[in-house]
Amino acid sequence: MIPNALTIAGVDPSGGAGIVADLKAFSALGAYGCAVVAALTAQNTRAVTGVELVDPAFVRQQIDTLYDDVRIDAVKLGMLGTAPIIAAVADGLVARNRAPIVLDPVMVAKSGASLLAMEAVTALRARLLPLATVITPNLPEAGVLLDRPPPATLADMRDAARALQRLGPRWVLLKGGHLADGPAVDIIDDGERQIELSAPRIATKNTHGTGCTLSAAIAALLPQRSDPIAAIEGAKAYLTAAIAESGSLAVGAGHGPVHHFHALWPASSARD
Ligand SMILES: Nc1ncnc2c1ncn2[C@@H]1O[C@H](COP(=O)(O)OP(=O)(O)OP(=O)(O)O)[C@@H](O)[C@H]1O
Ligand SMILES: [Mg+2]
Predict the structure, then answer these.
(1) Whose CA is nearest to atom 19 of ligand 1?
(2) If you measure from the C-alpha of residue 207 to the centroid of ligand 1, how many angstroms do you get, rounded to a whole number?
(3) pLDDT by residue, tens only, the chain of 272 residues
(4) Strand, coil or helix: what is 106?
(5) CATH classification at residue 62
(6) Residues enclosing ligand 1, CB less than 6 A?
(7) DSSP secondary-structure letter at 250?
C-alpha cells in the first residue's frame, strides 16, 4: 500500500524549502503527500521578506478534518512559527495521530531570517520533542534546544546528540552541514548507540531547503523501510544526490534548491 505522508509546515513560494519541497520529496520517494499549512512566507532564494501565520484554531481544524478522512502513515513537522501554533499541532497530534513523527525544529532560514519566535522554543521542547520519532536539528538549533553554544566539533556533536535524545525523542539525527569544513557528517543517536553518517561535502550554494528535504525524505521512507536507521540512511543518500544534481536547475540567484526529481527526470544533457 502506498503510504500517506503529512507535512505540517510553512509555505516557501520559491519551492525549494517548506511544504512545497516536502511534497516534492514525498513524491520522489513513493509517498502520497498531504499538507497542513501553519504559515505563509514571502520568500525567494535570497531572503524571507514576510511571514503570515495561520490562526492556531485553523491549523487544528486542518488537522482534524484531514484525520477524519485520511489514513496518515508518517508526519513531518517543519516551520511552526509560534507557541500557540505548536500547542495546536501537539494537541491535534496527541488526539489523532498514531504514525511516526519526524520533527525538523526549524528556527532560522538559510538566508538568516528567524522562523520561530523565541518563546516558542520552550513550547517546542516541552510539547513536541517527546512526541517525535526522529528530530533533525542543525547545529545552531541543537545549541538553542540545549541552551548551550552550538556544537563546533565532531566530539561536541556526539555529546549534543546524546543530550538531545534525553529530551524525549526516540531518535536524534544531528546534522553537521554547518560544521566549518570536511565531509557533511550527521550523527544518529538512539540513547544507546551512535552512528555517523558521512557524505562528501558538495561545493555548491544550492543548499536552500536541504533540511526540509531531508526530514520529509525520512518521513516518506519510515513506513517503507524496516527500521528508522534504514529510513534515515536512505533519506541522506537521496538528499546528497539531490544536492549533487542541483546544478541542472536554474532557480533564483541566492541559495538555489536541490533537485528533488534527480532520479526520475532525464538528465539535462539528454533533454537538450
Ligand atoms: N554542501 C553539502 N554537501 C553535502 N551535504 C550537505 C551539504 N550541506 C549540507 N549537507 C547535508 O544536508 C543535510 C541538511 O543539513 P544542514 O545542516 O544544512 O540543515 P539545515 O541547516 O537545517 O538546512 P535548511 O537551511 O534547509 O534548514 C545534512 O544531512 C547535511 O549533512
Ligand atoms: Mg533547517
Answers:
(1) 211
(2) 7
(3) 999 999 999 999 999 999 999 999 999 999 999 999 999 999 999 999 999 999 999 999 999 999 999 999 999 999 999 999 999 999 999 999 999 999 999 988 777 777 777 789 999 999 999 999 999 999 999 999 999 999 999 999 999 999 999 999 999 999 998 887 788 899 999 999 999 999 999 999 999 999 999 999 999 999 999 999 999 999 999 999 999 999 999 999 999 999 999 999 987 666 65
(4) coil
(5) 3.40.1190.20
(6) 17, 110, 138, 175-178, 184, 186, 199, 201-202, 207, 209-212, 214, 236, 239-240, 243
(7) -
CA dihedral 205, 216, 76, 171 (to 10 degrees): -90
From the list 210, 234, 236, 256, the catalytic residue is: 210
Contact 188, 172 (CB under 8 A): yes
Q: Which domain holds residue 233?
A: 4-271
Q: Is 143 one of the catalytic residues? A: no
The atom number, within ligand 1, closest to the CA of 185 reads 31
Helices 228-244 & 210-221, crossing angle to 10 degrees?
A: 140
Say which residues have a Cβ less than 8 Å from residue 90's Cβ, sequence separation at least 6. Answer: 123, 127, 128, 131
Instruction: Mark whether 182 is an active-site residue.
Output: no
pLDDT digit string (tens) for 190-235? 999 999 999 999 999 999 999 999 999 999 999 999 999 999 999 9
Record the pTM.
Answer: 0.97
Q: Which of 261, 248, 242, 268 is nearest to 28 (CA)?
A: 261
Asked about 211 being catalytic, the answer comes back as yes
- Which one of 139, 204, 207 would you pick to mutate in the ligand 1 pocket, going by the greatest count of ligand atoms within 8 A of its CB? 207
Say how many domains are in the chain. 1
Query: Cα of 107 to ligand 2 centre, how many Å?
Result: 7
Cell matching residue 86:
505548536
Is residue 212 annotated as a catalytic residue, yes or no?
Answer: yes
